[in-house]
Amino acid sequence: MAEMVPIVDENNNIIDVVERSVMRQKELPHRASYIVLCNNDNRFLIEIRTLKKDFAKGMLDACIGGVIDDKEDERESAKRELFEEVSVKVSDDAFHFLGTEKIESGKTFIYGYYYFVKGDFITKRQQEEVSGIMYLKFEEMEKIKDAFVFDSYYAFKRILEKARAQNLI
Predict the structure, then answer these.
(1) Domain range enclosing 128
(2) Could you report the per-residue pLDDT of 53-86, keeping only the tens digit for each?
């Protein structure tokens, strides 16, 4: 069964729903969740994308997350992605929503839904989407920022700003 994705306008209003493959092929604007997972040593979980991904194969992801499916609640989508990709479940009070923002990405844009989680978790990567994970300090990430998927690194920096402003880190 094809994954259906809402397509949005400049104001984040849904204007169409198409198959994910069509969204990728035509580079259509959509919604995505971005979750920064920070451990108690202030290191951030970084994913290495598999070569099977439909976008940015083999690159680094500074955020856990993904495309929000049609008829899926944004918060539940983010929690689902967190569990699917790294097997982490968190309570609602530890799952901090930090806002929504339009991210210009190449020829299109994405409406990003930002979340922050802090704690030490046992993780298990989803082998279909994640080749590996590592924990890095922000300074280490800055040195290799060109290896990250653009929207993921942009969202990471914005989430970090917002988390610091709210004294979450």
Answers:
(1) 4-165
(2) 666 678 899 999 999 999 899 999 999 999 999 9
**What is the pTM (predicted TM-score) of this model?**
0.93
Which of 55, 58, 40, 63 is CA-nearest to residue 132? 58
Cα dist. 21→1, 5, 48, 78 in Å?
12, 9, 22, 21
Residues contacting residue 138 through CB under 8 Å, at least 6 positions apart:
42, 44, 160
Dihedral pair phi/psi, residue 76, rounded to 5°: -65, -35
CATH number, domain containing residue 155? 3.90.79.10
Q: How many domains does the chain have?
A: 1
Residues recorded for the chain: 169
